[in-house]
From TrEMBL:
The protein's name: Unannotated protein
CDD domains recorded: AdoMet_MTases (cd02440)
PANTHER family the record matches: PUTATIVE (AFU_ORTHOLOGUE AFUA_2G14390)-RELATED, TRANS-ACONITATE 2-METHYLTRANSFERASE-RELATED
Pfam families documented for this protein: Methyltransf_23
Protein's organism: freshwater metagenome
Length: 334
């Protein structure tokens, strides 16, 4: 790879068609380079020539995002059939052990806290924690706040940790979010971050059908190199990195494999409650999809483990410490 993110090349598989001019932000929301020379990489993705992140393009407008996050996406009765929601609670809460172990004393801020599973797990460990969530019911849960990061006051002495768990890819201004995390953290405080890996074997293999593109909800698609370069520029030191810990790798591999089997349905829709599905799915087709998934699960697990060992796993996991150093970047002109 190039020695500088300012000269990062587009992925080798890039399609060099010219994307529609003006179909997204004028500058890359990660590195600030103008987007007038982005490279088409997929049906709805372009690559920034400055840092190598991919952007959803055309960029969704407010109406499209409102539909993408409407009640069907996260209904009150739960998203998943069977034990799915219970498994999600356990996996989301399991991050509390890591955060509690690596962070200094003090409050933990969970950005995109959802139903508060991580907050609950942190409270059980004796940690003070607050969560930020869009349209949060702050009456039912006083530890949830319907605030953006830049609206949050810095805790006395600074926060011990900020968690961006599969959140940064949803944000229209991810670099600003990292900057706000640095503002909120004390020196020595920890940023715990996970997101999909746009440079993974899965992303290359499944192309536009890869589940973790999740468009239009995911706006910015990161590579490990681009993500770490940006964190360092904002005064963070990456202490630990990985792939499997960030979750989703096996399921994304399984989803892609099932999608290649004739007549099988969309696995993600198949495991969701009827009211939470993006497209209807008949009972027989759902049963076929489940059977195919069961048969392919060992292969998906093996593939996910192999790509993680290679350093090309489907998800990126980073632990970064705020060093107290002055950031080397300037806020992007918008």
């Amino acid at each position: 790879m190039p020695s500088s993110p300012q000269h990062a090349a587009a992925p080798a598989s890039a399609d060099h068609r010219s994307p529609t001019s003006g179909a997204g932000p004028a500058a890359c929301p990660w590195c600030g380079r103008p987007t007038d020379d982005v490279v088409q990489t997929g049906a709805r993705r372009v690559c920034c020539r400055g840092c190598g992140v991919q952007l959803t393009w055309p960029w969704p407008d407010a109406a499209e995002l409102d539909h993408a996050y409407a009640d069907w996406y996260r209904p009150e009765g739960g998203r998943f059939s069977g034990p799915g929601d219970a498994i999600l609670r356990v996996t989301r809460g399991s991050t509390a052990w890591t955060v509690d172990r690596i962070a200094p004393d003090g409050v933990v801020i969970d950005v995109g806290a959802g139903d508060g599973h991580l907050l609950d797990a942190l409270h059980r460990r004796g940690r003070e924690a607050i969560g930020l969530e869009r349209d949060a019911d702050t009456t039912a849960r006083p530890d949830l706040r319907d605030d953006a990061l830049d609206e949050l006051e810095r805790p006395d002495g600074g926060a011990a940790a900020v968690v961006l768990w599969h959140v940064i890819e949803h944000l229209p201004e991810p670099r600003q979010a990292v900057r706000e995390a640095a503002r909120l953290l004390r020196p020595g405080g920890v940023l715990v971050l996970a997101c999909p890996n746009a440079d993974s074997r899965q992303a290359r293999s499944f192309g536009d059908r890869w589940l973790a593109w999740d468009q239009p909800r995911h706006l910015v698609h990161f590579t490990p190199r681009a993500l770490e370069d940006g964190l360092r520029a904002e005064g963070f030191e990456v202490r630990r990195r990985g792939h499997l810990r960030a979750g989703q790798s096996v399921f994304c591999a399984l989803h892609g494999l099932v999608g290649r089997v004739p007549y099988a349905g969309d696995l993600y829709d198949a495991i969701r409650q009827p009211e939470a599905r993006q497209t209807p799915l008949s009972g027989p087709r759902r049963a076929l999809t489940a059977a195919v998934a069961g048969a392919l699960l060992p292969l998906a697990a093996l593939a996910a483990a192999g790509e993680a060992l290679e350093g090309r796993g489907a998800s990126i996991y980073l632990e970064a410490v705020r060093t107290g150093a002055t950031p080397t970047s300037e806020p992007h002109a918008r």
